[in-house]
UniProtKB/TrEMBL annotation:
Family: Belongs to the MEMO1 family.
Protein name listed in UniProt: MEMO1 family
Positions of the UniProt region annotated as Disordered: 227-251
PANTHER family assigned: PROTEIN MEMO1
NCBIfam families named in the record: AmmeMemoSam_B (TIGR04336)
Family matches, as InterPro entries: MEMO1_fam
Domain of life: Eukaryota
Xref: Pfam families: Memo
Length: 343
């Protein structure tokens, strides 16, 4: 089903620089701002074959994404799975690219047609409509960074670069995420494969219809009939009676955003897929890539059940940023986070 057509770099020149030399310089600058060691580990971190990174315009999310990409270990990698959410059409399963190449300002990356065919044969994947694939930004925004890291790892010969497997993940429940996670687990187990998860975190404000109140562990989400208690790691909750007005003033909105994102990131770091799924369900946090994250968490959890070495298969967040610090309730902001997992 993969056709000999190239998915153009449709957001180059608007969301990021289209001139190769200037783009390369920009990415080099962002990567240079990341330390060469994190928590005593030199970068890239050996075995860090999975990352979570944002997909907004580089002016906003580029510096945060650099943290994830600098940890990514592409040594010996032959295939990179690119997994992101559907922004442009409603989808309830996972969908695969029908293109043979993805364009970047640096050159084209080749889609792994054989792998796409293998996944299609499961009967669980649909095809991304071509015009929607061109409109979708969540995977494209990762390609220049990926190219830069491939260049650093493999040199200037693009013919030696790994193939890519673009996958769009739709809206699904915990059981469906678990199903796709188990389906992809054998591929993540293979040390020749890497995985990039595309996701921004909290989308706050009237533009996104999300601006809950969070005081002393009680979340009051306008979309819910009753408030909920949220524990620090977001793993449990309970409906509670309407609390009395707190004696203390509510925290600034940007601190509420940070706390909600911390709860989500803590849930991811538990390595338990169900914890993260419940966290998103309870808080309503508008993490656009929650389903892609859930699918890969389920895959890693399946690998741990098979005996993956202790300390592996869990994401570790290393950077968190926001597009702005919200002061008024109706202001808007988007959060960005970077994480890696050693497999």
């Amino acid at each position: 089903m993969v056709q000999k057509r190239t998915r153009e770099a449709s957001h180059a020149g608007s969301w990021y620089e289209f001139r190769p030399a200037k783009l390369s310089s920009e990415l080099d600058k962002y990567l240079s701002q990341v330390p060469d060691t994190i928590n005593g580990k030199s970068l890239p971190i050996p075995g860090a074959r999975a990352i979570i990174a944002p997909h907004a315009g580089y002016t906003y999310s580029g510096p945060c994404a650099a943290w994830a990409y600098k940890t990514l270990d592409l040594t010996g990698i032959k295939r990179v799975f690119l997994i992101g959410p559907s922004h442009k059409y409603y989808l309830t399963n996972c969908a695969l690219s029908t293109c043979s190449k993805y364009e970047t300002p640096f050159g084209d990356l080749t889609v792994d047609a054989a792998m796409c065919s293998e996944l299609r044969e499961t009967g669980d994947f649909s095809n991304i409509p071509f015009h929607k694939e061109v409109q979708e930004h969540c995977l494209e925004m990762h390609l220049p960074y990926l190219w830069k890291r491939l260049e650093q790892t493999f040199g200037d010969d693009a013919s030696a670069y790994p193939l890519i497997v673009p996958i769009i993940v739709g809206v699904m429940g915990e059981a469906e995420e678990d199903h796709y996670g188990h389906l992809l687990a054998p591929y993540l187990k293979d040390s020749a494969n890497a995985c990039i998860i595309s996701s921004d975190f909290c989308h706050w404000g009237s533009n996104y219809d999300y601006s809950p109140q969070y005081i002393d562990g009680v979340l009051k989400n306008p979309g819910h009939k009753s408030p909920s208690i949220i524990k620090p790691n977001g793993t449990t909750n309970a409906d509670v009676e309407e609390p009395e007005e707190p004696e203390v003033s509510p925290p600034p909105y940007h601190e509420i955003i940070k706390k909600l994102d911390e709860i989500a990131m803590d849930a991811v770091e538990t390595g338990v897929h169900g914890n993260f799924h419940r966290c998103i369900k309870v808080t309503g946090n508008t993490v656009c890539g929650s389903h892609p994250i859930g699918v890969v968490m389920a895959a890693l959890e399946a690998l741990k059940a098979e005996g993956l070495e202790d300390g592996k298969g869990k994401f570790k967040f290393i950077q968190y940023q926001r597009s702005g610090l919200v002061v008024d309730k109706d202001d808007f902001s988007v959060s960005y986070a970077a994480a890696y997992a050693v497999i």
